[in-house]
Amino acid sequence: MIIQIFGKKNCNGSKKAERFFKERGIKIQFINLKEKAPSKGELKSICSKYPLEELIDTEGMDYKKRNLQYMVFNLEETLLENPVLFKSPIGRFKNEITLGYQPEVWKNWTEKLK
């Protein structure tokens, strides 16, 4: 099983996640949220651990540029249509999911791969 990281290339947390695994010689599948949204099934899997409200990056420039703080909108549709609005990185390994930089959890993942 491969570790997946959903992130943005210009996001410090995503860069730290990539570096974490690279330093340990672990290959990951990096999904750039600026190019590809998670599928509905992947989003459902992520939502099994984190509610939709926690997935949207309300502090990000893209959220503020769209003035979403002043609007009522469907979170799921908006995230799938605008994947840059996801908080990142989102890590996935087997049935485990992380949101944000979580090196302690990732360390456990790398040990399971050995």
Summarize the structure.
The chain is of the alpha+beta class. It has helices at residues 12-23, 40-47, 52-55, 61-65, 75-81, 103-113, and strands at residues 3-7, 28-32, 90-93, 96-99. The relative contact order is 0.23.
Fold and architecture overview:
The chain has 114 residues and is an alpha+beta fold. The chain has a single domain, classed as Glutaredoxin (3-Layer(aba) Sandwich), CATH 3.40.30.10. It is built from six helices and four strands. It has helices spanning 12-23, 40-47, 52-55, 61-65, 75-81, 103-113, and strands spanning 3-7, 28-32, 90-93, 96-99. A four-stranded mixed beta sheet has the order 2-1-3-4, covered by helices on one side. Helix 1 (12-23) links the parallel strand 1 and strand 2. The N and C termini lie close together (11 Å). The mean pLDDT is 95.
CATH superfamily: Glutaredoxin
Query: Class, according to the CATH hierarchy?
Result: Alpha Beta
Q: DSSP helix count?
A: 6
CATH architecture label: 3-Layer(aba) Sandwich
How far apart are the first and last residues' alpha carbons, in Å? 11 Å
In the residues, how many domains can be counted? 1
CATH topology: Glutaredoxin
**Percent helix:** 40-55%
The low-pLDDT segments are none
